[in-house]
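Box 3.1. Reading complex inputs
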Amino acid sequence: MSSQGDAQQRVAFQYLETERLLGVDFIPVAPISSVRPQPPEPTPSGTSSPLDELRSRVEADFPFCDSLSSASRPVFGEGPEEARLVFIGEAPGAQEDETGRPFVGAAGQKLDQIIGAMGLDRDAVFITNILKARPPENRTPTVGEIESCAPYLREQLRIIKPEVIITLGGPATKFILGTTEGISRLRGRWGVWEDDALRIPVMPTFHPAYLLRNYTNETRKQMWSDVQKVVELLGLAKK
Ligand code: URA
């Protein structure tokens, strides 16, 4: 591209950047793939993958504990086994309970925008929750519910071995980082999820439902700055 073309492109990006920060919604920065250049060995045909096996176990174990028995179905999570990035939310809500898919309601639409703004496709990342079924009245998960579902989340992470985890909101962040600190102190600061030999970087950020309720320039900038750190770590930033 000519130097004039470069300058125009820079101005265009700066314009978009300003628009984005000042009120326009998240704008995609770059179309990029988030699947690994060298995915793990494919599962031989006719056999199920470790993630499929885990899904079957979750389906068989549903509802996991008495207090989740009002849920209609398990919500395992979705995305490819070779995803480089895993998003972890709190628990399925009403629409997730109806469809069996994570983050498909209003918060899910906000999450889709954020994923798109990172330059990623939703189907290239893995999206899941701490709880694998909807708690009654959408209340905050109890310790017992978290304990009954935690082994499945751990197993998902062991199988996928993502390069980065983004935790959405306080409960997911506290659980993954094993801390009692609040999300407003933890967001934007790298943490680590450790499990035997695995050490996976964790970026805590706001839950999209919080963002929907508190949609200010400040919260948007904070969320954007958090996810930008992940974009950079994954080498997805526009050149
Ligand atoms: N909120 C969550 O934490 N998870 C979902 O799947 C939907 C809403």
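In summary: Residues 10-16, 21-33 have pLDDT under 50 and may be disordered.
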